Amino acid sequence: MKVSLKCILGAALVATASAAAPVAVQAQDYPHDSVTLVTHSRSGGGTDVFLREMVKYLSNYVGANLVVENVRGGSGAKAMAKLATSPADGSIFYGTTPTFINTSLLAEPDYTYKDLMGVTNVFLDPQIVYVRSDSPYADLSAVVEAALADPGSVIFGVTTPGSLDRQVMEKFKALTGVTSPIVTHDGGGELLISVLNGTVSLGIGEIQELTAQLEAGEVRLLTTYTLDRLEDFPDVPTAREQGIDLVINKFRGIAGPSGLPEDILGAWENAIQSVLEDSEFKAWYEAQSLVPFYMGSAEYNAFLEDFAMQQQAFFKEYGIVDD
Predict the structure, then answer these.
(1) Where along the chain do its domains lie?
(2) How far apart are CA 232 and CA 230, in angstroms?
(3) Backbone angles phi, psi at 18, to 5 degrees
(4) How crowded is residue 118: how many other Cβ atoms within 10 Å of its Cβ?
(5) What angle (nearest 5°) sits at the alpha carbon of residue 211, between those of residues 209 and 212?
(6) Chain segment 162-194, per-residue pLDDT in tens
């Protein structure tokens, strides 16, 4: 089955998502009792939340105790270095998002995504725009109107400098003519705090980062950067419906040190397919509006290379990097 992904560049990313039926992995089959899943996100960030929730169920299918470790610094550079210098034996993995590609292209770290290998993709993560509940902005059009009238009065908040949402703002500015300041953060948790305390006017993020605040009525959604409205938020119009042609798909997956053996890759491919069918985990990720989008290792690595090429083209188009 071929699925077309429309990314920030407006180009289609096509990946083959077909796979053999998942087979549960028995505990005695996996060579390690404990496995570390690294994230560059701080506690409460989107990747941190995703991984910590998933390991509750995934451990049963991998056949090992899975623990999450936050390795922060350099917008993912320190996390990539930890993975790249670790043994390729199935004892350590990394929670991937577009940030690890973008940091590799923008920051010239000692180790890049090329020093890792994709294991599987798990989800597409809809991007949303949110404000504090008492914000004067009722919709995205009101934000644009205010920002055009007085650029300094509207401060946009994003996560790390290498994040996909940071690039979304470049496209947003080009489409709308807005020139308001953009403030970067260490992750989604920090961005949420800035929105709540009024440091920034709005933030771009993911549903799982905001669940508690949405339920408490502390924040509200202005729009989604999706093709269609989210099922759990039917009253929130898409950016396209508000006259801004932006559709973004953020991927969430798993990578490991280069050179992982085939039996380890197979174990994780089977385990991820199985956990996506786990009824309890499914209830959680559907409530977070996460979209299952499984790719095995070969397909995922091809996807990542294609994504990197398109991101590089984006950076050149918008003058973020030199030709």
Answers:
(1) 2-125+249-317, 127-224
(2) 6
(3) -75, 150
(4) 25
(5) 110
(6) 678 888 888 899 899 999 999 998 888 899 999
Distance of CA 65 to the CA centre of its chain: 24
155 burial via Cβ count (<10 Å: 0-12, 13-18, 19+): middle
Instruction: Give the separation between CA 290 and CA 246, rounded to whole angstroms.
Output: 18
Q: In CATH terms, are 2-125+249-317 and 127-224 the same topology?
A: yes
To the question of domain 127-224 being in CATH 3.40.630.30, the answer is no
With cut-offs at 50, 70 and 90, classify the pLDDT of residue 322.
low
Write out the DSSP string of 81-147: HHHHTS-SSSSEEEEE-HHHHHHHHHH--SS-GGGEEEEEEEEEEE-EEEEETT-S--SHHHHHHHH
Give the Cα separation of 172 and 166 in Å (integer).
10
- Torsion angle defined by CA atoms of residues 229, 233, 237 and 238, in that order, rounded to the nearest 10 degrees: -50
Q: What dihedral do alpha carbons 124, 164, 193, 291 form, nearest 10°?
A: -10
Taking domain 2-125+249-317, whether its CATH number is 3.40.190.150 is answered by: yes
N- to C-terminal Cα separation, the chain: 36
pLDDT of the residue at 26:
44
Q: Which two tokens stand for residue 291?
A: 């979209």
Higher pLDDT, 86 or 207: 86
How many other C-beta atoms are found inside a 10 Å radius of the C-beta of residue 313? 12
Q: Which two tokens stand for residue 91?
A: 């004892």
SS3 221: strand
Query: What is the spatial distance between Cα 313 and Cα 307, in angstroms, rounded to a whole number?
Result: 10
The two structure tokens encoding residue 208: 């799982």
